[in-house]
Amino acid sequence: MKAKFITVEGLEGSGKSSVIGFIQKLLKKEGFSVGVFREPGSTSVGEKIRRILLDNKNKKLSAHTELLLYLAARTQLIEEKLIGAFSQYDFVICDRFFDSTLIYQGFALGLGKIVESSVKMFSLGIMPDFTIYLDVVPKEGLARIKKKDRIEERSLSFHEKLRKGYLELARKNPARIKVVNAQKPLNQIFGKIESLLRRKLKV
């Protein structure tokens, strides 16, 4: 792999899109080539799966089916786009990756060991070099969203569990996952992220 692989994780309404846009702009300003992708999505199959997963009408989607759909979208992204992107770009950024599955389906939905083993299997050996977790109080993050999708509509306790899971995951992986307070003003968030990138990835 030529490219450094950066993933951005966060609760709903944490501002991942804004942060990814900032990182992309910063890296390009420094003269690096950058590829940006999202999960689930960024492929024809992945985008169709995304619509199923986020559609509010799909209330009866089971936790196991949800897990399988996320894994399917990820393997499609890896094989169709990411493997090629790693040799094409200096940096590859992905809006969510396997940490989301570990926390959303494994921790918050309680699928545990099934998720851990399946994530390991279906990430096809791909591991982020660096992960930014955007931390926000769930109630505040959800308040930023005007029209909520199927996942965003879940109970506040579910989203609070997500936060607990992410913070624990970051505690266990301090070298890879860095926690950024996403409730601060945008310029402070960007400043913190720039500092982390320069220190971690020598940008």
Fold and architecture overview:
The protein is an alpha/beta fold. It has 8 helices and 5 strands; from the N terminus they run βαβααβααβααβα. Helix 1 (16-29) crosses helix 8, helix 2 (44-54) packs antiparallel against helix 3 (63-88) and helix 3 runs parallel beside helix 5 (113-122). The model has no long low-confidence stretch (mean pLDDT 96).
Quick summary of this structure?
With 203 residues, the protein is an alpha/beta fold. It has helices at 16-29, 44-54, 63-88, 98-108, 113-122, 138-143, 156-172, 186-201; strands at residues 4-10, 34-38, 91-95, 130-135, 177-181.
List its salient traits:
5 strands, globular, 203 residues, alpha/beta
Low-confidence stretches are: none
Total DSSP E strands: 5
Largest sheet: 5 strands, parallel
Report helical residue fraction: 40-55%
Rounded to an integer in angstroms, the radius of gyration calculated over CA atoms is 16 Å
Oligomeric organization of the protein chains? single chain
Q: Can you list the strand order of the major beta sheet?
A: 2-3-1-4-5
Explain the layout of strands and helices.
Layout: E1 4-10, H1 16-29, E2 34-38, H2 44-54, H3 63-88, E3 91-95, H4 98-108, H5 113-122, E4 130-135, H6 138-143, H7 156-172, E5 177-181, H8 186-201
Parallel strand pairs: 1-3, 1-4, 2-3, 4-5
Helix pairs in contact: 1-8, 2-3, 3-5, 4-5, 4-7
